[in-house]
Amino acid sequence: MLPPPVPQIASLGRVVSVRGSQARIGVMASPEVTATTLRATVGQFFGIRGAKATIVAIITEMSRENIDMRDNHVAIASVDLLGEISREGRFQRGVTSYPTIGDAVDILTADELRVIYTPTGRDQVNIGTLQQDQAITAYVNIEEMLSKHFAVLGSTGVGKSTSVSLLLNEILVARPSLRVFLLDVHNEYGRCFGPRALVLNPRNLKLPFWLFNFEEFVDVLFGGRPGVPEEMEVLSEVIPIAKATYLQYANSERIGLKRIETRATGFTPDTPVPYRLVDLISLIDERMGKLENRSSRIIYHKLIQRIEVVRNDARYSFMFENANVGGDSMAEVVSHLFRLPANGKPMTVMQLAGFPADVVDSVVSVLCRMAFDFGLWSDGASPLLFVCEEAHRYASADRSIGFGPTRKAVSRIAKEGRKYGVYLGLITQRPAELDATILSQCNTLFAMRLANERDQGILRSAVSDAAANLLSFVPSLGTREVLAFGEGVALPTRLRFKEVPQHQLPRSEATIATTPSSDSGHDAYFVSSVIERWRGSTTHREAPSDPHVSDRFAERVGDHSLQRLVDSPPLQTISPLGLDTERYSLLKKPLR
Question: Please, which residues have CB within 8 angstroms of residue 52's CB and are 6 or more apart in sequence?
């Protein structure tokens, strides 16, 4: 006599086909499940009940097309296979036992989701909640996210900056000994990290010109334009001699200085040792005096003129202060920039909006290169996270755009930084314009709403996970919603970042009012004062007693050409033009 048939377990559906890492599920009609009551949709997790484990799958498509009514199906679901929960209740990524035709399928329970997302160590930090079940907390593994780099991608207005503030604040809490360096392109993050961050800008930054390598220094002298080959050749010859000359001065060998030949200096134009600008100009002038050909003398004369113009421009004072005095301050600069020791401020926020536009790329190149080189020569003794906001500006996919050394410096961190404790975080709204090789080095991706088709295409190519099909609904993500992929998260997940406290919200420090007030006083006196300040931006002038006037002025005046001059000397208390001081003070009044 045959044994009685095993009763079928009530389920949502059955596996109808399996192909590689994907499967198709036939959702069955039942008293509890009909075409009108079915709530399964894309982004939800299914559990395929296999013989050895429950396979975790995520829905990527739901359809009622081409349904065979004889199978009693109300829908067909396409799913990606992501991992499995063993009978002992342990979760692992990847599938060791594939489903078979007819295996039962259910929506994962809250308890099973907790098995997947429960932190397994101290390196897990809370970043939000699952979109499928807001009672389940979403965690990210700090060690995996940092050591293998990460990127935050999203269009303007989707909460990208707020999400970056959230992630970095959580990192600072979880890793108080980790140093963080953030390139703040729009001066948004100055107030986000409170007393834990040192905020640097052109007013308090000291970055001596001799720390710039040859390409970076040429970029500064020529204002971001290609250098003149003849002038660059002269520079490449005299810079090593100027360095050797300063070394002799430093060793108090001023009497009987020997003439130094380029080959005998032991230095290259890129060696980060100090030299004085006056020695550099003197060497160029000396060579010019020996020339009889007038056309050749013009080359030297133009080069001296370029150096003098940049040296006397107040906007470049962060580079050329004490340029003729000298002094080896490299240890102090590195210590100050990269917080060694931290002294309670393990983070540096480098505000770039106040720098002259022509020099921003060179400054970023210097900072990236120094961060990597310090990690290299210290054997990774003090880990550093280097976060690059608007990364597509410095590492463009188009090699003809941007400054080559900056792209090279960022790429070097992306490819080799993890070996030396230098980790990379990229934030961009245009991943299609970012060097694909650099993006591919980021093994944890946070993809927020992206509307541009090219950006979505680059994101698809960067995601190697089994759940890459989830990217099809990236354009429809809500504000603060994100698809998280890669090593830092347990599974490719659609989640919502948690709320950020008010004091940690990014706020631009250069917000311009679109509606001027009726009493703003834009008369001839106002215009004359603006012009005086404009002219003063490129000359060295004594600063007045109120150092914050410049900040308030830049925040209020809407002309973008003036915004680039944010770091010019603040307004004088008494107008040099002899203007009425009461009317002159209009510049100090907020424009509402």
Answer: 86, 87, 97
Looking at the structure, tell me whether residues 101 and 82 fall in a common domain. yes
pLDDT band per the 50, 70, 90 thresholds, residue 438 = very high
Domain ends where: 249, 284, 319?
319
* Closest to 82 in 3D by CA, of 11, 19, 13, 22: 22
Angle at 125 between CA 158 and CA 342, to 5 degrees: 95
Phi-psi region of 82 (alpha: psi -120 to 50; beta: other; left: phi over 0): alpha
CA dihedral (517, 523, 529, 535) in degrees, to 10, reads 100
In degrees rounded to 5, what are phi and psi of residue 191? Answer: -105, 0
As a whole number of angstroms, the distance between CA 83 and CA 50 comes to 12
The residue behind tokens 């295996």 is 103
pLDDT surpassing 50 at residue 564: no
Average pLDDT value over all residues in the chain? 80
pLDDT of residue 522: 64
Selection from 530, 521, 518 nearest residue 559 by Cα: 530
224 and 564 in contact (C-beta within 8 Å)?
A: no
Query: Which one, of 48, 54, 142, lies nearest residue 91 by Cα?
Result: 54
Does residue 300 sit in the same domain as residue 235? yes
- CA 520: distance to chain centroid? 37
| Side chain identity, residue 261 | E
CA dist 317 to 43, 348, 538, Å?
54, 20, 10
Token pair, residue 140, equals: 């990210």
Q: Judge contact between 459 and 474, C-beta under 8 A.
A: yes
Chosen domain end from 457, 489, 504: 504
Indicate whether 341 and 192 sit together in one domain. yes
Which residues have C-beta within 8 Å of that of residue 453, sequence separation ≥ 6? none
Q: How many residues in the chain?
A: 592
Beta 197-200 vs 347-351: how paired, if at all? parallel
